[in-house]
Design a protein that fits this description.
- By secondary structure, this protein is of the alpha+beta class.
- It has two domains: 49 residues, no CATH class; 34 residues, no CATH class.
- It is built from three helices and four strands.
- A four-stranded mixed β-sheet has the order 2-1-4-3, with no helix packed on it.
- The longest helix is centred in the last third of the chain and has 30 residues.
């Protein structure tokens, strides 16, 4: 290893802003402040979120209403009721007929010049 090219790897205190919790780990990250932890002074890195305050780890994670999302999808695309399905099928048939007419017209034009 070349000397003087590697950052200093040292113990650092990480503090969660939301909970005030602190833990010690090793890091090369630059720290502006220092703090005393268990009688020793360490560089301090302030975190916006950590495992102490993250909703996934604390169990306060919001659950999305998946049933409502499915119902909205069904209504949007016409699968919510019998009449909704009929409307969706009619739209699909209309699009297929329009596409078929364009293809038929294209085929006729292709045949005429030959």
């Amino acid at each position: 290893m070349k000397p003087e090219i590697h950052p200093e790897y040292r113990f650092v205190v990480f503090r969660d802003v939301n909970t005030g919790g602190e833990f010690i780990s090793r890091s090369c990250a630059a720290a502006r402040d220092t703090t005393t932890h268990e009688g020793q002074e360490y560089p301090l890195i302030v975190l916006d979120i950590s495992s102490e305050s993250h909703p996934f780890y604390t169990g306060t994670q919001r659950l999305m209403d998946t049933e409502g999302r499915v119902e909205r999808f069904m209504r949007k695309y016409g699968f919510a009721s019998e009449s909704g399905q009929a409307e969706g099928e009619q739209q699909a048939e209309g699009e297929q007929q329009a596409g078929g007419e364009q293809q038929a017209g294209g085929e006729q034009q292709a045949e005429a010049p030959t």
